[in-house]
Design a protein that fits this description.
The chain is α+β, with helices and mostly antiparallel strands. The protein is built from 14 helices and 8 strands. The protein is 59% helix and 15% strand. The strands form 2 sheets. It has a 5-stranded antiparallel β-sheet.
Length: 369
Amino acid sequence: MENVLRPLIVAGGSVVLTLLMGWAVDRLLQRADRRHHETPLWGLLRRCRLPLQFVLCTALLRGSYDHAKIAEDHSAGIGQTLSLVLIGATAWLVVRIAAAIVESSYARYATTHRDPARVRRVRTQVTLIQRVVIAIVGVVAVAAMLLTFPAFRAAGASLLASAGVLGIVAGVAAQSTLGNLFAGLQIAFGDMVRIGDTVVVDGEWGTVEEITLTFLAVRTWDERRITMPVSYFTSKPFQNWSRGGAQMTGTVFFHLDHSAPVGQMRERLHDILRECAAWDGRDWGLAVTDTTPSTIEVRALVTAKDADDIWTVRVTVREQMVGWLAEQHSYALPRINTATALIASGEAASALPDHVIERNGRAPRIGRG
């Protein structure tokens, strides 16, 4: 009877004690969250309840396992398994606590600063810091798990002795990966590009959606995702429309006939912009910027508060201006002048290529003679 009750008491007591401690910690965090509304840290820490319970339960079972006398023939294997679970649960708990602290810091910064550029910069930095912390904790946890095996502990001295050679070999083999790693840190703290920035890379316009230590994801206007190595942004030029403020100036070009009413177009452009909610009212203009033998080039200049609005203003001006010209001033649209070909004759025909004469079956004529 004692052999049956002892395992039940040890295992059941560990589970019950874990649940009680987890409930008590959650109640304390809930009360602290109600008292301190200025910071979301205590509410975020409540997400750590599950990994905390795993750590407590595994630690209690690991500490009381030897006294429970459960499966004594497999005590070494069970103890090893409990140790591995404890290390993994501890790493999980540390990652959750670090994530809560990072998210709380970013939330407080975002509420106290109104500059979108600075907020995006901090968001990029804390995201990469969080990924670095997760990577470090994961490596340490895996190393701790390996050290629980006697074979790895015995080989530790030889591994340390050859660490220099292995480091050189790994550095050469992972040169590209390490380059992307340092490029990610450079982007995070060099303020080159941030999450939420509007960029143009390889002719594609989009918004930076995610930045990791090795790659960067850009969401294009048509909902595609372009994934690029972060080293691209430290080695090649790209356009960042969010640098120096989000306000933008855009242009719309029209190719029209020489008789186009430029003055009336200027008035019409102003009317279109006044009705366009995306126009920020900072500036506008319309001028003839170039001419060709058959057309003129008219440039409309508009402004908006960000890249999304400048796109809306440009397409609105282009659509409504072309519609107005087609309806009110159709003569201003570009035309292709054509004329009837005249037949060549006499000496002029001798200057034409032979294939032209053969195709017509007779010598062409120029003029009316």
